[in-house]
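Work package 3, deliverable 3.1, input record:
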Amino acid sequence: MKLSLNHLFNNNPPISAEILCIGSELILGNIVNTNSQWISEELTTLGINHFRQTTIGDNLNRITKLIQEISCRCNLLITTGGLGPTPDDLTTEAISRAFESPLFLREYLWNEIQEKLSHKKELIENVNLRKQCLFPKGVQIINNPTGTAPGMIWQPINNFTIMTFPGVPSELKSMWKESAKDYIKNKFSDGSIFYSNTLKLTGISESTISKKIEELLNLRNPTVAPYANLEEVKLRITAKAKNNTEAKLIIRPIKDKLKVIFSDYIFGEDDHTLASIVIDELKNKNQTIVFAESCTGGLLSSTITSVGGSSKVFKGGVVAYSNELKESLLNVPSNLIAIHGAVSEEVASAMAIGIKDKLKSDWSISISGIAGPEGGSNNKPVGLVYIAITGPDKKTTIIKKQYNSLRNRIEIQRLSVNDCLNSLRLILLSIK
Amino acid sequence: MKLSLNHLFNNNPPISAEILCIGSELILGNIVNTNSQWISEELTTLGINHFRQTTIGDNLNRITKLIQEISCRCNLLITTGGLGPTPDDLTTEAISRAFESPLFLREYLWNEIQEKLSHKKELIENVNLRKQCLFPKGVQIINNPTGTAPGMIWQPINNFTIMTFPGVPSELKSMWKESAKDYIKNKFSDGSIFYSNTLKLTGISESTISKKIEELLNLRNPTVAPYANLEEVKLRITAKAKNNTEAKLIIRPIKDKLKVIFSDYIFGEDDHTLASIVIDELKNKNQTIVFAESCTGGLLSSTITSVGGSSKVFKGGVVAYSNELKESLLNVPSNLIAIHGAVSEEVASAMAIGIKDKLKSDWSISISGIAGPEGGSNNKPVGLVYIAITGPDKKTTIIKKQYNSLRNRIEIQRLSVNDCLNSLRLILLSIK
């Protein structure tokens, strides 16, 4: 069930790139390779054809041979990893061997590194950082604004350029944005770009979506591709065009169609999150919100407060994990808990009303449920969650959810938070 | 800063494997390749040498050529992706072309698939699922317990075996565990296994650690390798041995040495988290804890409550995002905020004492700081955080942190939570 942009590449591309990630930690499976995904996305956006990614461990001979091999089949090689100061960092040496070009110390880089680390003298003395200043003759240096290891741009043979980056994702990204991106755009792009616009949906499964838009999934320009995670499905519309304006024109009619088909499920686009959408809505209305959380244990609050500027609408909340706190902090009558249990429509409702009264806000959300792995019963199994939302009109909406009990604790918490925010979004929309 | 197990592979290994991930969504950067990490880890555990991973898009010629290329340099190829029913799923066809061996329909598989989808008749009619039953002659089928696409085990030429898996991680994993793992173990393992034990450290940087144990990082069996993320550094000790018991004996003395060198920084091993360690400590003492959070907005609570069984020690807390709530819910005197500001030693301290009194617990933690991106000043820049911890003896410890102001909001929140939990851990240790 995959969709490809390959067809867009089929008119004799002038340039093709490869990505090479170097590091035994990748080969051993110790870390997930997020760099190759990030670079791939960047290359796609720049309209650079890219057919292969390779990962290899820290072995000088193997890296050297692989680089020679790659130089025979593409024009641009992007490497990550192996630029550090330890004996296992071998990328630059392997490249110099691959093209039989010796390394020389760039004195000014060594001065720069010493300056960067002037507050960490012992590092300069004890670690072989001079190694990071060794480069073949004639290479162009890629400045590393956040770390010590510079990268390089080098054309060792005709029609083949290498660009090296560290394996640390934040360093790679800042170097890419500051220096590499424009270089690649100017030097290698055929003038066309890829531009994507993503619709974000929740409350509908990827397979249901795919079935409804089979025809659109077979389009060639723009392409439409669905990607799902636990909480949401993204529909990514990608156009190949001369520029962003043209791309947007190509995307527009398809986007409009999708908006009609999935109007109830689309909550935003691109960088939007459910939290950011809800915050924006509340800001527009100049209203505030508070939370009373039980089974989500603070995840709803932290999801809202992970968005900058959330303090404009979010006053705060209570994590009432114990029944005692539900009574003392939220004014939930103790007999209500005794009769219905903490996980019940009645208690969720009392929690939402209690926190709204106490903290004097326009809106409140409460959640009470069983996130597991313990605490479930035949009557109230793991995955049972009650959400209550009280609004300025003091009307309380109750949402009952029974998540699949095979879901783990964290998944149930995440799904609960998602349903809180989406339910609030729908209520806010309905009173627009 | 990478360390390798490659040296363990240097005594003429009998078998070497490669991983090939097929899918344009990987090449386009739409999804992160978690499969190659997962398989790498499995191969490492099985003691199978593995030197290279490749990713390629859905293009028949390119996949065919690449498989021929790989068959010349290793003995075992694991592929993922491209087993679905759509025209873009090309793996089996490419393999059959690579070795000029035609595909035949396995009638019994077709019956199985129809049975699996008997409740989804329209899928059977509309999608070319028969494609998933085509295989070269003589291959062994890998049953897919959770999906429709079977995999295969095939030795098309001497000393070269291919095993194919779908790209869906859950299907790959269940097929691997049910069928592939034992096959590989019996057929390809030299009888030795890799076993790892990981020490987890916080409050110390990867470079400081590496400098202190340079000699240990050069060991060959066991190997010691550091991996860092935002909050912690892991020291992974890996032994190659006949079995787990022998491996543990090899690991033991090195682990003991590391424990002496880094005693203050090691908080746990393997699956431990700071939250789980703190919860265990409080359970042992039969004590409870509550939180008053400002700048972390609920992240401390949700970190604790992401651990199953946390309700035994965590009663709840307050997210007092606004000053109003700091006063009304935590009894922070309003003049204290007026004089010192919400982000101050005095207010953090009052918050910790206020919540502890109000919720009647043994311990309390409060956090007040500036997570950014807005709200910073010359006097109190973004990244300034005060943590207060009050204990059963009513003594309050204040921790002042100034995180790098280049850190983003979420990083500052995560670092703050980490410092809360680690400070509490150290206090709990000191009164043991």
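Chain B has 16 helices and 17 strands.
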